[in-house]
Amino acid sequence: MKPWLQLMFFPCVFLIWHTEAEFFTSIGQMTDLIYAEKDLVQSLQEYIRAEEKKLSQIKSWAEKMDVLTSKSASDPEGYLAHPVNAYKLVKRLNTDWLELENLVLQDTTNGFIANLTIQRQFFPTEEDETGAAKALMRLQDTYKLDPETLSRGNLPGTKYRSSLTVGDCFGMGKTAYNDGDYYHTVLWMEQALKQHDEGEDTTVSKVEILDYLSYAVFQFGDLHRAMELTRRLISLDSTHERAGSNLRYFEKLLEKEREEKEKENSINKTVTSTEAVVQSGAYERPLDYLPERDIYEALCRGEGVKMTPRRQKRLFCRYHDGNRNPHLLIAPFKEEDEWDSPHIVRYYDVMSDEEIEKIKQLAKPRLARATVRDPKTGVLTVASYRVSKSSWLEEDDDPVVAKVNQRMQQITGLTVETAELLQVANYGMGGQYEPHFDFSRGTAVFWYNLFRSGEGDYRTRHAACPVLVGCKWVSNKWFHERGNEFLRPCGRTEVD
Length: 496
Known about the structure:
It is a single chain. This protein is α+β, with helices and mostly antiparallel strands. Helix content is 48%, strand content 12%. It has helices spanning 27-74, 76-80, 83-105, 110-120, 126-142, 147-152, 166-178, 182-197, 206-219, 223-236, 241-268, 293-300, 309-312, 326-329, 353-363, 399-412; strands at 3-9, 317-320, 333-339, 344-348, 368-369, 372-373, 380-381, 388-393, 422-427, 433-437, 443-448, 461-464, 473-478. It has a nine-stranded antiparallel β-sheet with strand order 2-3-4-11-1-13-9-8-5, with helices on one face. Strands 6-7 form a two-stranded antiparallel sheet. A hairpin with a 6-residue loop joins strand 6 and strand 7. Helix 10 (223-236) runs antiparallel to helix 11 (241-268).
């Protein structure tokens, strides 16, 4: 018997420095980057003010000297006839111009560069940028969002709208390309080209975009469109060697394809068009390692299994006193049936806002990339299908942890003496945990993932959907069979 209790709550606040990389796996820790960037902007503004002050002094000197030299150059001998003018000319060239030189050479960047150097050790890495790009693509796939929607920032429930530039879309496409993901390469390079064609100001050239796009399209076997894009590239840059070479290669392949079809037609005595190639650029996403990917993503979009009216009638709401637990008789918890088989229940108002914030505060400085156990080696390792960071809290860490553990024991009727520590997880950009065996703020969801016989209940395979908007914190508590033999005795059959 290995029951699960899951507490879910969402907001994220406060600042605690953390030097570990992989910021993209925890939105909670990414808040630190907001403050770091704000500090850098303030430092940059101080540098600009110092530069403006220096330039103002130089400009004032230049204007004064312009007036003076205009007068002296009009009548050099007459000007120098006055001994004071002669003295001041010598002094200016020997002393004043040297002071101006020192002013011009004065380095006002020291403060900004020093701050930037200090802050850089906390900056995201190349891995973070790649992870962030893949997170957007994960959201794109799961929630069926087209690149235009993401690029324009048209997401529901967002307070601060933001959009992607041509350079951003190009970067997304390059990330996909470098990962051998030509499906997303095409989508994002097309979006970059679309925004470029619309006249958006950018340093990325159409030639660069077309170079990646034409090759990615070719990888889908769309020779006609690959040639069309390559010809457009060459029209913009006739000296592009790779494009010229690719075009010749594509033409040879197309000619070979035509010859083979003509030969086949002559044998079968049928006529087949050689132009039946997808021209729209709408390519299907390749299958991946998760066989139930479509089902999983449909569930995340709310398109999953719907319960029949007859089964819904078996779901009830009630007050739960933990089988007349003395602690719950006066203040029972609100319990709601979420699913009938396997039986899953939800408890409301399990934790107060203050307890939630305290647990987040305790967990945040300890967050580390969540791991899974490799089924072959048994070693804990990070995995692309688990994008979150987690930490483990002991009762000695703070009285609130002991209080929450005790509350879970009262609700479930199981002992926490043999249970695992309280796990706190914070999901990152597009954070997810794909289907595995294992809801609103302050609620708890509880189920058993083992039958009373100790056999696994495979119906409890579950997943965390990618976070489209917001910041999700989740706490988990695993109760083990050991220590609960008399609290939840074995059943008479294997599936009791």
